[in-house]
Amino acid sequence: MRYTAQFLLSATAAEQFPPSGAPEIAFLGRSNVGKSSLLNAIVGEKAARVSSTPGRTRAINFFALIDRAGRRRMVFADLPGYGYAKISKSVSAEWPKFIDPYLAEREALKLCVCLVDANVPARPSDLQLLEWLRTAGREFVVVATKADRLSGNTRARNLAELKKGLEIDEILAISAKTRFGIGELWTRVDKATG
Ligand code: GDP
User: Fold this and answer.
1) How confident is the model at residue 1 (pLDDT cuts 50, 70, 90)?
2) Would you list the domain boundaries of the chain?
3) What is the pLDDT of residue 84?
4) Quick one: which H or E segment has residue 79?
5) Cβ of 19: how many Cβ atoms within 10 Å?
6) How close is the Cα of 117 to the center of ligand 1, in Å?
7) pLDDT digits over 49-70, tens only?
8) Would you say residue 194 has pLDDT above 50?
9) In angstroms, what is the span from residue 85 Cα to ligand 1's centroid?
10) Please, what is the end-to-end C-alpha distance for the chain in angstroms?
11) Candidates 37, 148, 149, 151: which one to mutate for ligand 1, based on the most atoms within 8 Å of Cβ?
12) Residue identifier of the C-alpha nearest atom 12 of ligand 1
């Protein structure tokens, strides 16, 4: 691990967000997409465990990433999973009220890592989220999780369909299980925070 993850706090209201400081990366995705597993693969079990603790799954969980010299290099914001509610007019309608202000106004936020399952076709809620981020002018990267479950042609076909369905030019295939794609994700995170 390049960094140690230090849990900062769980926020369920905008007043509780930590002071905006180090560059921030937000992780977003439908429930069960593999967000905890990915956090575990990139920053260690502690972050994944905190984020999946009951009561914290509806909060934004903030983690500081500390380098070996003890410096806070960046902050990861793990956002609540979405998608269990009925299809709503916008993603934000099914979200707690504090998510919108976070994504719209958070000054330190440099990149949104949006997770979709490589094995599941694009969902309206995913598309809505990306449209929302585009409108808000937020930089994002879409990551296709659990890519180890697919191989060869099936993987290529699913990724191409996801790109089309989500109206994006690029998708990053990743596996928390095999660590495929993790290095590439770090490259994107470093670029956004550097
Ligand atoms: P979350 O609800 O988004 O935090 O999702 P989890 O991280 O809890 O993962 C949901 C399910 O997908 C679990 O059963 C995981 O074991 C599985 N999963 C997550 N990541 C991967 C992966 O990279 N490969 C495979 N094969 N399964 C995964």
Assistant:
1) low
2) 4-193
3) 52
4) none
5) 5
6) 9
7) 888 888 788 889 999 999 999 9
8) yes
9) 20
10) 18
11) 37
12) 34
pLDDT of residue 54: 81
- Pick the residue with more confidence: 121 or 88? 121
Report the top-level CATH class of 4-193. Answer: alpha beta
Q: How confident is the model at residue 88 (pLDDT cuts 50, 70, 90)?
A: very low
Nearest CA to ligand 1 atom 25: 146
**The predicted structure's pLDDT at residue 81:** 85
Query: Residue 137: helix, strand or coil by DSSP?
Result: coil
Which tokens sit at 12? 């369920």
pLDDT at 5 over 80: yes
Q: How are beta strands 72-78 and 60-66 bridged, if at all? A: antiparallel
Nearest-5° Cα angle at 94, 93 to 100:
60
Strand order in the sheet with 60-66: 4-11, 60-66, 72-78, 24-29, 109-117, 140-145, 172-173
The answer to whether the beta carbons of residues 162 and 116 sit under 8 Å apart is yes
Q: Which atom of ligand 1 is nearest to the CA of 174?
A: 23
Q: 37: Cβ below 6 Å to ligand 1?
A: yes
The residue among 45, 33, 42 whose CA lies nearest residue 190 is 42
Residue 83 pLDDT exceeds 60? yes
